[in-house]
Specification:
Blueprint: H1 2-15, E1 22-28, H2 37-46, E2 51-57, E3 62-68, H3 74-83, E4 89-90
Antiparallel strand pairs: 1-3, 1-4, 2-3
Length: about 90
């Protein structure tokens, strides 16, 4: 009986949801000026741990990033684009 309860408890812990929040931020990336730029920016952002989605818009010169705030920060995202040669900042609404 104890073994069965232990197994049930372990399964419950594995099935429980995590409490990290998914956040979305839009970054202004003014240095993008050719069709290859969004590819580089997207690649840099998707390598950041915790990033789940990246949409890059060349015409608007921005990147919209969805990420797990328990695994990364906006500062890490802007650092990733800067390190790739495209400095960015949080876009004001």
């Amino acid at each position: 009986m104890k073994t069965l309860l232990s197994i049930a408890g372990a399964l419950l812990l594995l099935a429980s949801p995590t409490f990290a929040a998914s956040k979305t931020v839009t970054l202004a990336v003014p240095g993008m000026n050719c069709s290859a730029c969004p590819i580089t920016v997207k690649k840099a952002l998707t390598k950041v741990a915790g990033v789940s989605k990246v949409d890059v818009d060349l015409d608007k010169r921005q990147a919209t990033v969805t990420f797990d705030d328990a695994k990364t920060t906006v500062a890490a995202l802007t650092k990733a684009t800067t390190d790739a040669g495209y400095p960015s900042s949080v876009k004001e609404k």
